[in-house]
């Protein structure tokens, strides 16, 4: 009878155990969907859907990051970042942009960093001369573990100059990102993030003050090796334009190298 009661108790606990393990996944999925939904809320009106130019694009990203502790232990709070992004348009058949973005940072705490950097962007024009853009950027980033996974908040300001004009454009960007490792296979994570862009002023090269664009991503991350992380997924890019707004469906391929 004792053996039977043990078996019965085990069978009664099993559903509760499964439920407890599923709850974090459900909460993580709900939070990711909320982040993405909030980012897309401004664009769900019937009028917006009827007046969009759609395109499928492929964006690549290779980011190397580390600190200067190898030079001198006292320099460990200082960090560096180098990012290269080739981007294609027209179903991935034409080159659209090439972005190169280095930066350096200082770690205020284990979770908080302040950054400053530069970016050069080449905009490939189908007919005519390519448009080059130079940017200076500053950002504050917080990242750390939460009950739902690794959470990141990134706040960035940019000062932008393009060769098709002579005025300085300011832009604000805010991103929230959540990465939740699968409990049954820790190297793989569910990844979701959303980033909103706001232009701070008008320029004679096309920037208009106010909402500029929104990017929302959903996909998977895979920690191939301790210093190597791959993130692959779908990114939706909504661009607010003076004539016809753009909705780009992007296959996003990201490689992160940690040193």
**Relative strand content:** over 45%
Residue share in helix: 10-25%
End-to-end Cα distance? 60 Å
Average predicted local confidence, pLDDT: 87
Net shape: globular
How many separate domains?
1
Q: What's the CATH topology name?
A: Porin
Unreliable spans: 1-19, 44-48
Write the element-wise H/E pattern from the N-terminal end onward: HHEEEEEEEEEEE
Strands, total number? 11
CATH architectural group: Beta Barrel
At the first level of CATH, what is the class? Answer: Mainly Beta
- Describe the sheet with the most strands: 11 strands, mixed, barrel
Rounded to an integer in angstroms, the radius of gyration calculated over CA atoms is: 22 Å
Indicate the topology.
Layout: H1 2-40, H2 46-50, E1 52-67, E2 78-89, E3 94-107, E4 112-123, E5 131-146, E6 149-162, E7 169-182, E8 185-199, E9 210-225, E10 228-239, E11 245-258
Parallel strand pairs: 1-11
Antiparallel strand pairs: 1-2, 2-3, 3-4, 4-5, 5-6, 6-7, 7-8, 8-9, 9-10, 10-11
Protein architecture, described:
By secondary structure, the protein is α+β, with helices and mostly antiparallel strands. Helices cover 17% and strands 60% of the residues. It has two helices and eleven strands. The protein has an eleven-stranded mixed beta barrel. A hairpin with a 2-residue loop joins strand 5 (131-146) and strand 6 (149-162).
């Amino acid at each position: 009878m004792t053996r039977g009661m043990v078996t019965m108790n085990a069978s009664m606990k099993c559903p509760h155990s499964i439920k407890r393990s599923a709850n974090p996944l459900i909460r993580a999925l709900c939070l990711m969907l909320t982040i993405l939904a909030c980012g897309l809320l401004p664009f769900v009106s019937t009028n917006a859907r009827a007046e969009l130019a759609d395109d499928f694009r492929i964006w690549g990203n290779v980011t190397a990051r580390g600190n200067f502790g190898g030079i001198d232990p006292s320099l460990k709070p200082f960090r560096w970042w180098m990012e290269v992004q080739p981007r294609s348009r027209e179903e991935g058949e034409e080159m659209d942009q090439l972005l190169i973005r280095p930066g350096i940072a200082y770690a205020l705490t284990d979770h908080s960093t302040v950054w400053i950097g530069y970016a050069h962007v080449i905009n490939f024009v189908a007919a005519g001369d390519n448009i080059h853009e130079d940017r200076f950027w500053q950002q504050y980033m917080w990242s750390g573990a939460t009950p739902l996974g690794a959470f990141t908040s990134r706040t960035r300001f940019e000062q932008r100059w393009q060769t098709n004009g002579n005025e300085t454009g300011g832009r604000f960007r805010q991103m929230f990102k959540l990465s939740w490792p699968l409990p049954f296979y820790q190297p793989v994570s569910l990844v979701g993030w959303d980033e909103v862009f706001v232009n701070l002023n008008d320029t004679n090269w096309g920037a208009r003050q106010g909402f500029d664009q929104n990017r929302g991503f959903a996909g998977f991350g895979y920690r191939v090796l301790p210093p190597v992380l791959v993130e692959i997924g779908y990114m939706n890019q909504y661009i607010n334009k003076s004539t016809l707004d753009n909705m780009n469906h992007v296959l996003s391929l990201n490689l992160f190298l940690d040193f």
